[in-house]
Amino acid sequence: MNSQHPITDSLAVLHAALDQVGVAQAWALPPEAKKQVLRDLARAEARVTAMKLQVLALSADLAEESGDKDAGSWLARDQRLERRNARLDDKLASALDTRWHHLTDAFTAGAVNLDQVRVIARALDELVEGNDDLDPELVQRAEHTLIDHATKFGPRELRILGRRILEHLDPEGTQARDERRLRDAEAHANKTQRLSWRSLGDGTTRLTGVIGDDVAHRLETILNAFAQPRKQAAAADGKLIPRPRLMALAFRDLLERLDPTRIPDHGGDATTVVVTITLHELREGLGKAGLGFDPDGDDTHITPEHARRLACQAQIIPAVLGQAGEILDLGRASRLHTPAMRKAIRLRDKTCRADGCDIPATWCEIHHLVPWSEGGKTSVKDGVALCSHHHHIVHDPAFDHERHPDGSFRFYRRR
């Protein structure tokens, strides 16, 4: 074979190797071998994708020659790919080539996968955006920290860590930046929020709007209470109802149950919310308050002034925080967790605590870590949120489980 270029030569060898195993029968692999094959394929896929993005970052000349908007657009057209995804690849390729070189090295070595790279690159971009005064050494430390944690965490956990990375690396400067961003975000929401609707003439109306994150959070909390997925599924003969339609049905139920006598000129009673804030922050107007139950793991934040406004017009349920930030026990001696306990557990856990499950905690059941029948206590500390599926599995004698240091569960079928 005549050598043309290391990349083209390597790809020729790769294709030749794939041709040889293309007819292999994967079903013949034993379970342990399948595990290793899938791990090796995932690493190989990451390394090939890293090479593709590196070449893509250096292929602007292809777009100039063909008249395409960018190299990603050329690739999408040439290979019949989804244009949006190809353009996202082009943008990611540029970020890796110009800014995040350590992440590129880890990607090329197969130490991180594409999903992780997307999350880490976005977190780093958001970190430096609008923070021109950040020490470059801090940014580099953040990049290394996120790469190191990629060996233990998936995209969802890395996304949460990426949002909070600066709190760990620069705690003194973080509060001022957070307060400035939060006030700017609230001012932007107040300026840009809008709501409109238009009849489509077929019995439906298109509702369009942009609202503040805090308003959206409260609306979602209320609609989740009305949605009741299992009850709705039963009414639909067990068929799964898509979440957007489920929310529309919940919105309808909400409006039908509003008491007209309780809607004064000022808009009626406010909804119940959970606010996590220290008494000092609430009084002094410093720091930030959080609205709980966010399945992404990062609470929706509001200013202390906003929290005080809610206190004037809404039923506030405080989540009392200890010095280390933990939610204090709200429990009492009873077999079933009280509504206050359930709120605290869901506020803490965010989602089902089964490893990899992202069912929101508001849809989960509360499981006793030590069964009540075996002397277990009913408290926030000894309760955990599990979705219906995993709550059944944790009590299924066909399965065993272990609890990780971070509180998540991993299940195994007994042999």
UniProtKB/TrEMBL annotation:
Residues 340-392 form the HNH nuclease domain. CDD domains: HNHc. InterPro entries: DUF222, HNH_nuc. It comes from the Bacteria. This is HNH nuclease domain-containing protein. It comes from Nocardioides massiliensis.
